[in-house]
Design brief:
With 519 residues, this protein is α/β, with parallel strands linked by helices. The chain is built from 14 helices and 17 strands. Strands 2-1-3-4-5 form a 5-stranded parallel beta sheet, sandwiched between helices. A 5-stranded parallel beta sheet has the order 7-6-8-9-10, with helices on both faces. Helix 6 links the parallel strand 6 and strand 7. The longest helix is centred in the middle third of the chain and has 61 residues. The radius of gyration is 31 Å and the shape is elongated. About 5% of the residues have low confidence. Keywords: Kinase, Phosphoprotein, Transferase. One of its GO terms (molecular function) is phosphorelay sensor kinase activity. It is an enzyme of class 2 (transferase).
């Protein structure tokens, strides 16, 4: 999309930041720019007109950027709009949550004008997309995000900007630090701001207070009002040692305040320690890149599972079912077809389980309930399980307490229910002793269906409290610990409830489920 035809919505609670970004976007040639001071105001804008790109700050009152992102991704009309989050957020778990929530790109403060333009152009040209994919979304190119200036282990020399109107002071400080850092010099505030807001800003600023024209406090204030310099750490180096000056400097956003004359070794240690923080913060960009790429990989796997494997598996199952309808099939052929039918059912179940579970976990699953017969679903499942566990000699029974002629119809996602119940019955089969009995009980209550799975054997005591947790397994060499975890999520995704009860005295385990029903 050409920039002159694009509509970009800027969301930031700081008016100064909005003005700067509006000016920058106009300089890029963006045709229409909207602004909002919080997420709710942004949503109001979007209800009134089409938006091609959202450039949002993270921390805002009323509704922050993360909640705005969540609201955007939940709306089918907006879910594909590129969403670029501008942030200084350093908590990995929160950033990971933003990635899972569908952020298109992360622009880490401080950023240069060039990086901002690169990200805006990439987003509007479709080079980045939200990670929450619709069913029709095709596999995409690798995602690009703002380049990192250096990683934690990089040998790139860090830069220090020294700002002082006295040449001797510049010479002294530069002499102390030039061995370890690339030194930039500025004799006044305007030059300092120009360097800080350039395409190659410094990693750290040593700033004098008393300077003609623009003092250090004003320089710091203007730095904090511009996205390119907002997060650059500043150390005041001043002859003013009174508490009021130090409080004013630290209160304005400086990370340290050193009085002249400086003590060389202490200055070098303070700069070294701050540079460690700078390296760690800048290394976050690499982490964000990896998070975004991992998220895209998950999306791509979901795409392959849901579309590329599910169709052929369903076709195999259907073909085997049609062939088995022929009563004249030789016994050996029938046995082979039943095995194919069983294997395709289990493979299809694995596909459904993986793809749908990911959607539920990521919050992108949307329930589209339909009426289906739980009784018929159980009959199909138990037939498959009877064949699978024939060597174990298990006995299967269905008790329909709702009445012999009741269809016991549910209102939910049949495919999801099949995946959940298959996992629960499979778990029951594996836990039951040889020759054990597994019973499925069905009953209709006022507003739901009660369904229970009863099997011989008890759940080991050490995993009872964490039976539904992810990766919890006991006594299974190849167990993943995902079966009961995924079943619980799938039942609850259909507005159902599920619980496990185990009775040591009766040597019995019960899985009790309730699901909405249709009369």
């Amino acid at each position: 999309m050409e920039l002159k035809y694009a509509t970009v919505l800027i969301v930031d609670d700081m008016e100064a930041m909005r003005k700067i970004n509006i000016s920058n976007l106009r300089g890029f040639g963006v045709g229409m720019i909207l602004e909002a001071d919080n997420g709710q105001a942004a949503l109001n804008h979007m209800k009134q007109r089409k938006v091609d790109l959202i450039l949002s700050d993270w921390s805002m009152p009323v509704m922050d950027g993360l909640e705005l992102l969540s609201q955007i991704r939940k709306n089918p009309a907006w879910e594909d709009i590129p969403f670029v989050m501008v942030t200084a957020e350093s908590e990995r778990s929160r950033v990971a949550y933003a990635v899972r929530s569908g952020v298109s790109d992360l622009l880490i403060k401080p950023f240069t004008l060039g990086r901002l333009k690169e990200r805006v152009v990439a987003a509007l040209n479709g080079e980045i997309r939200n990670r929450v994919k619709s069913k029709e979304l095709e596999l995409e190119k690798d995602v690009r995000i703002s380049p990192n200036t250096s990683s934690l282990g990089s040998t790139t020399q860090r830069s220090v900007l020294i700002v002082d109107d006295v040449a001797d002071n510049l010479t002294l400080l530069a002499g102390l630090l030039k061995k370890d850092y690339r030194i930039l010099l500025a004799k006044d505030g305007l030059r300092a701001l120009s360097l800080c807001q350039s395409e190659t800003p410094p990693d750290l600023v040593l700033l004098d207070v008393m300077m003609p024209g623009m003092d250090g406090f004003e320089v710091l204030k203007r730095m904090r009002e511009h996205p390119a310099s907002e997060q650059i750490p500043v150390i005041f180096v001043s002859a003013l040692g009174d508490v009021e000056s130090q409080s004013r400097g630290l209160g304005g956003g400086a990370v340290d305040y050193i009085t002249k004359p400086v003590q060389p070794e202490l200055l070098k240690l303070r700069v070294k320690n701050l540079m460690q923080d700078v390296r760690m913060r800048q290394n976050l960009q690499d982490d964000y890149q990896q998070m975004l790429e991992n998220q895209k990989l998950k999306d791509d796997v979901e795409q392959i599972l849901h579309h590329d494997l599910k169709g052929p598996m369903a076709g195999i199952f259907s073909l085997a079912e049609q062939l088995l309808a022929n009563p004249r099939l030789p016994s050996a052929v029938r046995d082979s077809l039943e095995m194919i039918e069983d294997l395709s059912t289990r493979s299809l179940d694995m596909v459904n389980n993986t793809a749908e579970l990911y959607k539920i976990e990521s919050g992108s699953y949307t329930l589209k309930p339909e009426k289906f017969s739980l009784l018929k679903l159980l009959e199909r499942l138990l037939k498959t399980l009877d064949s699978t566990y024939k060597s174990k000699g298990l006995q299967f029974e269905i008790k329909n307490l709702a009445g012999e002629h009741s269809k016991v119809e549910c209102y939910g996602d049949e495919s999801l229910s099949q995946s959940a119940l298959f996992n629960l019955f499979k778990n029951a089969c594996e836990a039951s002793p040889v020759g054990g009995k597994i019973t499925a009980r069905l009953d209709i209550k006022v507003d739901h269906i009660e369904f229970g799975i009863y099997n011989s054997g008890v759940v080991p005591e050490d995993i009872r409290d964490k039976f539904w947790r992810k990766y919890v397994s006991s006594g299974k060499n190849q167990g993943t610990g995902l079966g009961t975890y995924s079943a619980k999520l799938m039942i609850e995704a259909q507005k159902g409830q599920i619980e496990m009860q185990t009775d040591d005295s009766s040597d019995l385990t019960r899985i009790l489920i309730s699901l909405p029903f249709v009369i």
